Amino acid sequence: MSAHLARRVLAELIGTALLVFFGAGSVVAAIIAGDGRLDYAGLGVIGLSFGLVIAIVWYAFSRTSGAHINPAVSIALASVRRFPWRDVPAYVVAQLVGAVLGALLIVAVYGRRATEIGGLGLTAMSPGAGYVKGVVAEALGTFLLLLAYLSLAVDRRAPPGSAGPAGFVIGFAVSAGMFVLGPITGGSLNPARTFGPYVVNSLFDGLTPWREFWVYVVGPVLGGVLAALGYVVVARRVREVPEEAPEGAEGAEGASEGRQVPPEDRPDRDGPDRDSSDRDSPVEHPRGDDGRG
Fold first, then answer.
1. For this UniProt entry, which segments traverse the membrane (predicted)?
2. Cα–Cα distance between 120 and 265 in angstroms, integer?
3. Do the Cβ atoms of 203 and 114 come closer than 8 Å?
């Protein structure tokens, strides 16, 4: 492993550990504060906690690793060639290890009580929800997360100044998913976020619904990949050209009105050496994933 990749992997490990400790840890805190009960107000506080910690991690590590802190994000970006597949295994392992470390930190702070009354903030489906509903719910939440990530952190056409609030928008996309999906699946949207508390809760003999774990893998990965593919297709870059070039106009730039034509239908102005699929795509590598650090 190169030193550059090792630095990025370490950023993913630390970021995911912070996500689980402050995110899943807020579930334990809410249950303790509620004398063993968790109502919707408590869920709102948990959602805000997740959103804030994701924003902070984004600002801290986005230029180093892209701040994926979620296997579904890494896989989704790789599926549209905006992240190298060769780095996906290292990122995913780091995210899973970081999640376990974050769950261990919850035990270090709250003790065994965290496993007994809060299950370390683990996610579980509500009674009667069903596996299909769980997969759909997790996919929809992760779809929203990837739309935020792609549009603000990856798309080269993001509005000027959007990099500033990007972390908060991405974080609160997760919060919004939790507000809606929390009563159904707990609103994980992240296989690592579920994996860490599951592993550590099992180590301390807590009740862990491992039979549901696949829902928290398939749902987020499916939703993330669909969001990435859909974004590339729907938000595809186009160029304005005139229906009929006015007299004296030199090309498309001389027309005030025109129709949108995909770039492959226009003459190649970028040179023959550039990959046309990258030229047409609205997305590029996230900051920190382009090899510059």
1. 12-34, 40-61, 90-111, 131-154, 166-185, 213-234
2. 55
3. no
HEC letters along the chain: CCHHHHHHHHHHHHHHHHHHHHHHHHHHHHHHHCCCCCCHHHHHHHHHHHHHHHHHHHHHHHHHHCCCCCHHHHHHHHHCCCCCHHHHHHHHHHHHHHHHHHHHHHHHHHCCHHHHHCHHHCCCCCCCCCHHHHHHHHHHHHHHHHHHHHHHHHECCCCCCCHHHHHHHHHHHHHHHHHHHHHHHCCCCCHHHHHHHHHHHHHCCCCCCHHHCCHHHHHHHHHHHHHHHHHHHHCCCCEEECCCCCCCCCCHHHCCCCEEECHHHCCCCCCCCCCHHHHHCCECCCCCCCCCC
Total-model pTM: 0.81
Confidence of residue 286 (pLDDT cuts 50, 70, 90): low
Q: What is the pLDDT of residue 242?
A: 47
Is residue 78 within 8 A of residue 84, CB to CB? The reply is: yes
Token duo for residue 94: 């780091």
pLDDT of the residue at 36: 77
Which pLDDT belongs to residue 270?
40
* Amino acid making up residue 266: R
What the block records as the tokens of 24 is 């899943």
Crossing angle (nearest 10°) for helices 25-33 and 40-65: 160
Decide: 69 and 94 in contact? Cβ < 8 Å: no
Residue pair 22/31 in contact (Cβ under 8 Å)? The answer is no
> Whats the size of the chain, residue-wise?
293
- Written as six digits, the tokens of 265 are 């239908």
CA distance 202 to 115: 9
**Domain annotation for the chain: domains and CATH numbers:** 3-234 (1.20.1080.10), 239-280 (no CATH)
